[in-house]
Design a protein that fits this description.
CATH class of the largest domain: Alpha Beta
Order of helices and strands: HHEEHEEEEHEEEEHEEHHEEE
Shape: elongated
Strand content: 25-35%
CATH topology of the largest domain: Nuclear Transport Factor 2, Chain: A
Distance between the termini: 64 Å
Largest sheet: 6 strands, mixed
CATH architecture of the largest domain: Roll
Number of helices: 7
Oligomer: single chain
């Protein structure tokens, strides 16, 4: 069977969602890779990969724009992937967005079987079509370290009376993933807790931090009884393996609430002005503090 026929049957199996036929198209030591796989996948892993992709995009399809020989037994194919994100992808919940993503595969065929598929597409365009924010930044520049952030906010206008700050120093990718997922679950549960105002998570190269705003220090003590948090603390003192951590509760000495007057554009201290601008206009309500 010539290489172009093998490649066409491979693409046909993708479009009819036939994982068994996709795997059968590969040689026993064949591999598949694209920008999201983290390296070549063996035939044992390919079926799981494709079914996961179909779960994320139930209506997934590939239109082959062109296909031709790029060398002995090598097929170069241009395609456009289309689908609607209905399931988790890249570890994130579905966005419901539609993607129309161009890409290319280089398929190496030997003795009627695929030895390798190397796929290429624009990961930034993929993320942006899903409605995700794609940011390219260095790990560090001089004394500055860059990372990622997340936030969960109630929108309350209550003045914070306490901040709990935690810093954890992970030593492996597994520890980073555990801390990230556990922190996300705890933040979701916080939204229903009394006294909770807002939460921010910060993830840098060597440290993961959370900063949480509460109405009073008493609400921090109440939070310590949360089951997910207590289980995470037990894991920290047990087999988690992180290098260390810092936990703390901070009480603010001063919080200035600054509001711009809609009439004269003057910036005013809302509390000192007792809600009135110097021009006599009533100031808007303070914005959420956290």
């Amino acid at each position: 069977m010539d290489a172009l026929t093998v490649a066409q049957r491979y693409f046909d199996a993708w479009n009819r969602r036939d994982a068994a036929s996709i795997v059968a198209a590969f040689a026993s030591d064949g591999t598949y890779s694209d920008p999201t796989t983290g390296g070549p996948l063996s035939t044992e892993a390919i079926a799981g990969y494709v079914t996961g992709l179909w779960s994320a995009f139930p209506d997934l399809s590939f239109d082959i724009v062109s296909a031709g020989l790029a060398g002995s037994g090598v097929v170069a194919a241009q395609w456009v992937m289309r689908g609607t994100n209905r399931g988790p992808v890249l570890g994130l919940p579905p966005t419901g967005k539609c993607v129309e993503l161009p890409g290319a595969d280089f398929i190496r065929v030997c003795d009627g079987a695929i030895r390798s598929v190397d796929g290429y597409f624009d990961t930034k365009a993929f993320a942006e079509q899903l409605g995700l924010r794609a940011v390219v930044q260095p790990r560090a520049v001089g004394p500055f370290t860059f990372g990622t952030t997340a936030a969960a906010r109630t929108g309350k206008r209550t003045r914070p009376g306490a901040f709990s700050i935690t810093a954890i120093y992970p030593r492996s990718a597994d520890e980073v993933e555990y801390v990230r997922e556990t922190s996300k679950q705890i933040a979701i549960e916080m939204l229903e807790m009394p006294g909770f105002i807002g939460w921010s998570g910060l993830n840098f190269e060597e440290i993961m931090m959370t900063v949480t705003a509460w109405e009073t220090p008493g609400h921090v003590r109440l939070f310590m009884r949360n089951g997910t948090h207590r289980a995470a603390v037990q894991r920290f003192f047990g087999d988690l393996g992180v290098a260390g951590a810092m936990t703390s509760v901070w009480v603010p000495e001063r919080i200035n609430t600054m509001i711009r007057c809609p009439e004269c554009s003057r910036m005013m201290n809302y509390d000192r002005a007792e809600g009135l601008c110097a021009c006599g206009a009533r100031l808007p309500e303070p914005l959420p503090y956290w």
